[in-house]
Predict the structure.
Amino acid sequence: MAEAPTRNLASEFRALRPYKGVDQVQAVLEDATLRIGDDIRVLADGNQVLEANTYLTAMLELDLLRRLEDPDGPAEEPDGYFDRLHKELREAGIESTELNQLRFMVVATTPYLKLIHVLWVGGYSDLVTSQGRLPLASGGRENRPRPLLAPSGGCTIEFIAYLGEDRGHDRSTRPLEVHSKGTWLARIRFDLETDITEIGFTPTPLTEELKEDLLLPEETIRYIIVEDPLAPDGSSNDLTVYVDADVLNAIATNAGGTGARTFQLQLAIDVIAAIVNESSILLATDPDATFSSIQGSLCHRLLRQASRTNAGRIDEEREEAMFTQVKDEPLRVIASFEGSKDVIRKRLLSNIKETG
Amino acid sequence: MRYPSLTEKATASLVVELLAGSNTEVVDREKRMIGNVDQELDLTEISQLSRELKAELETIDDSVPRDSFEGAIAGRIHEALKPIDIQILDDKGFWRYLALRHFWWLAVWREDAFAKGDPGKYLKYVNAMNSTECVLTRTFLRGQIALEAGGYELAETVEQATDFWRSHISRVNNWKYPTLVRAFIRSHTEDRMLTDPLRSFARALNRRRSSFWLRDHTDDEAEKIVADLRGKIDGA
């Protein structure tokens, strides 16, 4: 399968987490897909734009089983899936007798309204009983979880495998293993938004007064402030994009024109450059920051979207390489985005939208 | 349900008019009604609450920190708005309408940027693009998070807490973990951290959170995490 090398390389990437074997558990969870209605299947760590009505009414189910050929093809048998999961959990140090200490939770969150709703929770035996298919929401609006009733902001659905209790053994005899309650072994997410989601980094008109206030030259056309692109769960709320007021008016009156489209694309690249440069500066002053510590940040989401294969999978080797490059060669990262206009249009622009 | 909404563009121009002294009734000129025509959202109670809060504000001594008032009204704002459909609360245009039509006085009083007349700074407090910046949405969320964490009173226990709530609760993932929020608020209330230690603590908490899913943690366990991290910061 085309994705196989990605899975094999997962260990290099996940080794940044200080626990043995969790990367392989992560790889098993990344086989999951989110089913939305009858026709839509979202890959792990994927981003899906839905019609608002679909968002508000469609059935949701988390399908853990690996698709054998392609996302719409047949799935492996549940027994095979749980054999694989069990094996990788053992590699991570979790004995068969400890499986009941694991918890699995699916939550939906809306960052805009700060809502969180537990869609499914259970232990290992519950997971086995489910046969790898976790019902998250039935069709229709009746009793629908609140985050799934928020189409403007969209939501994130996360599946987390974690220790439900302290393992209680002598840590010194089991180094590099997960020990404490709450430590997660693997987690995946699905970002859902709709065709009515507002773009988060709507440019602020850069007036003459603002230029003076911001100590910018009169000729300034655009200026971007990024607050903390490494903060977990960052969003485009952390971005302020200023565009000269006259230029902004000109774009607004001719939004579909070639010049306007080119400017918008350039603006997107400028936003990317600002995130990458600011991240690079912060990483240089924070030696403790790792890829795992920036999970969910603007920087992380940017790299994740840029690291997808044509099949939509995350190329973790590329992701890891880009993270290193952000630290060491930020200009090279920016250049790689400039060569990917389709990626910017299709994925980056939608993904750095405010999802809540 | 039909409800009023404002576009970003209309909000920007209305703010200029309001700053020039127009009555907030001008906001209705620009509102768009969204949703099904079967029933219209009744904002009578919201309007009444706004008038009550404004009257209360006028009785408060100027020396009282503005954040204290924000914290004190967070629960009432949340309680009044939470019955509204999520789909409406999820619409930034609805918040813009409320912020300008009914709570304009609050935003103007709360943020100095309005007095300076700088659109680049004041718009974020009313245009609802960022729910942790807009005065009305952030106050609502403060009440909501406090309620989840144990009760509305938690919204006002930390003094001068604007940055605390924005930077360390609402804007980061801490809001997802009610017991952690409760422990953090209690610890900071009992033994307030100064700015630098608070930032160090927040960074350490972010790192801890990046490896832990804290949704199941009990009060005792959350308090232990907070105490442990504070001990490390204090000992550093």
User: Anything to note?
Assistant: The first helix of chain B runs from residue 8 to 19. The mean pLDDT of chain B is 92. The radius of gyration of chain B is 19 Å. The beta strands of chain B are 3-5, 32-34.
